[in-house]
Amino acid sequence: MTNFVCMGERYTSTEAMEHVEKTHGLLERSEHALLRHVPLVAAALAVLAGLSSLLSARTGEAMLASRTEAVLSQSLATDAWNEYQADSLKAHLNESLVGMAATEATRRSLSTDATKYRSRQGPLRTKATASERQRDDDMRRSDVLEHRKQLFDVAVALFEISIVLTSVAAMVRRQSLFIFSAVVAVAAVAFDIFAFYRGMHTYVGVDSLAMTAVECAAIFEALTPGFEEGTLKPFPVDAQGTYSLERATDAYRKVLGGSPERLAFIPGGRKT
Q: What is the pLDDT of residue 271?
């Protein structure tokens, strides 16, 4: 009896090879031409099942990371709102005491403190609402990743079922069962493709060689806030790939020569 792997577990190569070896032994002397391809098909299905399982695990890790980020963003928003309310209470208290102050100096001091607390509320409100927006974005991304993981899990299960059906087809020497296992495998591939589609990937390319230096500078200026806020993450650049502006010609010559390395300019930085 073949044991099925649970949806959340990793499909191992050992299990796949057991199916392939068993199938190969059963079909060495098969009189059915179609069934002679079963070992190759079983091996291909095992590879696809392993890849789908790996993608499911990676997607699950990304989902948990996104939910963790959402919790941290909610914590930041809560702290900012608490500080906002505290400043509001302090400002209101100082404004109420101004009229009861005995001296002009005391009134000025209370009024100054109230103004200080009020001035701090604007940035705190902005910080809190930005954290809440980040929390919502993280939760939406987490939901999308959760749905993608479910699709990958279904694909893994269908691949496993297809492998089992392929083995059974080899045992009973039924071509119709082998064809049915192929249909199940096609359905599994469809789930994998749909999971990729649900990823909503966007790839943007910029041909800097077709643009002027001024146009490239405008793009860099527009991207700067994203890097400063941490929304955009730069790719790592090796220390040998950094160039000062004085060596810009050497850097461009290296790029045009087909260098696979990432290069970066450091304006006013160290010379390499």
A: 45
Six-digit token string for 184: 């199940």
Domain residue spans in the chain? 13-197, 204-234, 235-272
pLDDT per residue as tens digits for the range 8-60: 455 555 665 565 555 555 555 555 555 666 777 778 888 888 888 888 888 88
pTM of the full structure: 0.55
The residues, any chain, with a CB within 8 Å of residue 74's CB and separated by 6 or more, are 131, 132, 135
**Count of residues in the chain:** 272
Give the chain as a 3 state SS string: CCCCCCCCCCCCHHHHHHHHHHHHHHCCCCCCCHHHHHHHHHHHHHHHHHHHHHHHHHHHHHHHHHHHHHHHHHHHHHHHHHHHHHHHHHHHHHHHHHCCCCCHHHHHHHHHHHHHHHHHHHHHHHHHHHHHHHHHHHHHHHHHHHHHHHHHHHHHHHHHHHHHHHHHHHHHCCHHHHHHHHHHHHHHHHHHHHHHHCCCCCCCCCCHHHCCHHHHHHHHHHHHHHHHHCCCCCCCCCHHHEECHHHHHHHHHHHHCCCCCCCEECCCCCCC
29-46 exposure pattern, b = at least 16 Cβ within 10 A, e = fewer: eeeeeebeebbebbbebb
Instruction: Give me the residues paired with residue 243 across strands.
Output: 265
CA distance 107 to 158: 76
Distance CA 74, CA 268 (A): 39
- List the one residue out of 87, 79, 86 whose CA is nearest residue 127: 79
Cα atoms found within 13 Å of the Cα of residue 272, Cβ hemisphere only: 16
